[in-house]
């Protein structure tokens, strides 16, 4: 059951039934919401519902997770960044550390709630406006996080919460931020470079050496041996004889690496029985784990990852009362 408690001069709503029933409580009844529910999947759904709300008082409501639930929430990898969908964790209801944030959000809501209610925003504009309101009141930049559950390997959890599939979340959040940057509403700072599948945009890729003749990736790598005395170079299998290394050209016994011989590299043998090709420089084929598309490395899509912050023009645009 949801319950309101008074801590210092703040009304704290402990959320339980609302999460179970996926219903948003009246934002005017309390100053802050604290999640009091053990199910990470239901909590995640509820937090996304808050973010998708069109009501400024809802999507800006300070929301905290209780630290005692943290291990349970993060037991499954898909919930690793659940705290990014809210204002993080709170321990033992220590609300005094959050008072500055609560007051800042309350001031912003009182100033802009009526204006936001009259603004007719939809689609990308609405997402950008609500995202600005959140990051501005939290005094944060828009920072991508590494994630195995993201299509590309990076995620913007709060912005991606507006979309209902992993493909749309990855694609449209990127398009949204790039568009705002091109309009000089956002500035950006380089973070990383990604190489992604040219078919689906996935970053979960398997790099394989393949046979240049039959394209099989069932290969065996064998070290090469260079015999100094007679200059013979061949695969190690040519030298092996009764657990010793014997040069197949001059029949000398090779004892000391660096003195009698060295290993200048490796050769590959295709284990496809109908091929058995031997070669030194195998081509690389990249296989996408998500869509199973095979491609050469030069066919991969190169994408830059950025951290975003609001420009002066962006501040004026999103804070406008017009």
Can you give a write-up of this model?
The protein is an alpha+beta fold and 322 residues long. Helices cover 29% and strands 27% of the residues. It has helices at residues 17-21, 40-52, 56-59, 70-73, 99-118, 123-138, 157-160, 166-182, 236-239, 312-318, and strands at residues 3-7, 10-15, 32-35, 63-66, 89-90, 145-146, 154-155, 186-196, 205-209, 219-227, 233-235, 240-241, 244-246, 253-254, 261-262, 266-270, 278-279, 284-288, 294-295, 301-310. The longest helix is centred in the middle third of the chain and has 20 residues, at 99-118. The chain is elongated, with a radius of gyration of 29 Å. The relative contact order is 0.11. The model has no long low-confidence stretch (mean pLDDT 92).
Provide key terms for this protein.
single chain; Arc Repressor Mutant, subunit A; elongated; alpha+beta; five-stranded antiparallel beta sheet; five-stranded mixed beta sheet; 29% helix; 20 strands
């Amino acid at each position: 059951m949801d319950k309101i408690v008074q801590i210092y001069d703040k009304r704290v709503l402990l959320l339980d039934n609302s999460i179970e029933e996926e219903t948003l409580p009246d934002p005017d009844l309390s100053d802050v919401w604290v999640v009091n529910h053990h199910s990470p999947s239901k909590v995640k759904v509820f937090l996304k519902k808050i973010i998708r709300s069109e009501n400024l008082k809802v999507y800006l409501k300070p929301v905290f997770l209780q630290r005692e639930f943290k291990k349970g929430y993060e037991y499954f990898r898909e919930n690793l960044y659940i705290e990014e969908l809210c204002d993080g964790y709170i321990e033992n209801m220590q609300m005094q550390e959050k008072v500055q944030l609560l007051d800042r959000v309350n001031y912003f809501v009182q100033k802009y709630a009526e204006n936001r209610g009259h603004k007719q925003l939809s689609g990308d504009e609405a997402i950008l406006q609500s995202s600005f309101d959140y990051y501005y009141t939290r005094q944060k930049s828009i920072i991508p996080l590494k994630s195995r559950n993201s299509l590309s390997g990076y995620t913007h959890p709060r912005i991606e919460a507006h979309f209902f599939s992993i493909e749309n979340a990855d694609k449209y959040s990127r398009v949204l931020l790039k568009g705002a940057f091109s309009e000089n509403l956002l500035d950006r700072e380089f973070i990383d470079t990604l190489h992604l599948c040219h078919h689906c945009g996935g970053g979960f890729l398997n790099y394989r050496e393949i046979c240049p003749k039959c394209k099989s990736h069932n290969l065996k790598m064998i070290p090469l041996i260079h015999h100094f005395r007679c200059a013979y170079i061949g695969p190690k299998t040519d030298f092996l004889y009764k657990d010793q290394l014997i040069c197949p050209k001059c029949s000398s016994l090779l004892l000391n690496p660096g003195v009698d011989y060295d290993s200048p590299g490796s050769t590959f043998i295709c284990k496809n029985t109908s091929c058995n090709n031997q070669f030194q420089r195998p081509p690389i084929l990249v296989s996408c784990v998500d869509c199973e598309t095979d491609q050469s490395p030069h066919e991969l899509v190169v994408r830059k990852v950025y951290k975003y912050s609001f420009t002066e023009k962006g501040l004026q645009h999103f804070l406008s009362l017009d």
